[in-house]
Amino acid sequence: MQNFEISVLDLAPVKKDKTIHDTFQDSLSLANHAESLDYKRFWLAEHHNMESIASSATSVLIGFIANGTKKIRVGSGGIMLPNHSSLVIAEQFGTLESLFPGRIDLGLGRAPGTDGLTAQALGRNPAIINQQFPRQILELQKYFSKENSEALVRAIPGEGLDIPLYILGSSTDSAFLAAELGLPYAFAGHFAPEQMEMAFNIYRQNFEPSKYCTEPYIIACINGVAAETSEEAHKMSTTLFQAFINIIRNDRKPFAPPVDEMDDIWSPMEKSMVLQKLRYTFIGDQAEIEEQIKSFQEKFNVNELMINSHIYDHQKRLNSYTIFRKAKDAVLNG
């Protein structure tokens, strides 16, 4: 098993009876905690029109987190690029990199991060997304290059800065693109596990080395709920289960506290759908998390595990990341 990093994916989850301000303070607290545990990076994901997720202005929130930390890399997991002008994103991340040199990542996705009606409000054109997304990535690379200094349109700040780009995917399409462009690849196994194994194989088999990345680099995002006991972890995970039930029912209300019995909430069909979507969710005490990480890495051997954790109680969420850090170290040292 190769050495691998661990990182954090945060959606700025809004909890029942909590404010958006509380949410952002919890995200900063988590980033500081992750930094103290030597997590590799802290990424925030762009979503829109959801009461349960507050990371819509992703670039602004990245600045807040980076300003409140010292060394951990901070970035987007991801910016949904067709929602934006390439130039504006180059300027925003050029500004962030200028403020926090050597600490900013730019993960890029093509999905809207929202529903169809909101996607229209964002100005997306679904008919051209598959052509637009690769073109926009090339535009970003041009805006960040020193050579663009002679162009009529320039990204200032941004020009000449080394801002790593990552391609995000939840299907196989972006695996081909990341391989063709020779860029690192991050897969959303935390909500779209069905094509993850195929996507990794496609990426590795088709990877073309580039000046950005000489060999394949894979980040796998998974859900993680760890606690001192297995029983506590499984109860805490019901917040995550309820969140996915809300997605199925198109109910975007804030995250709910854990419950004793999920069968009072979901139907058998909903349960089957949720558990299928959450196939790569690591739940348990430290020993169980160690076994789940080991099993996952024996199968996929990724460069980095990025952990998304929907745990209602903030202190228990922090402790979950502590347990994951210990479990990761135990796996590598065992």
UniProtKB/TrEMBL annotation:
- Could you give a GO molecular-function term held by this entry? oxidoreductase activity, acting on paired donors, with incorporation or reduction of molecular oxygen
Q: Which domain of life is it from?
A: Bacteria
* Luciferase-like domain boundaries: 22-113, 153-298
Q: Which InterPro entries match?
A: Bact_Lucif_Oxidored, CmoO-like, Luciferase-like_dom, Luciferase-like_sf
Q: Which residues form a coiled coil?
A: none
Pfam families membership: Bac_luciferase
Q: Which GO terms describe its cellular component?
A: cytosol
Q: Which family does it belong to?
A: To bacterial alkanal monooxygenase alpha and beta chains.
According to UniProt, the name of this protein is Luciferase-like monooxygenase
Species of provenance: Chryseobacterium cheonjiense
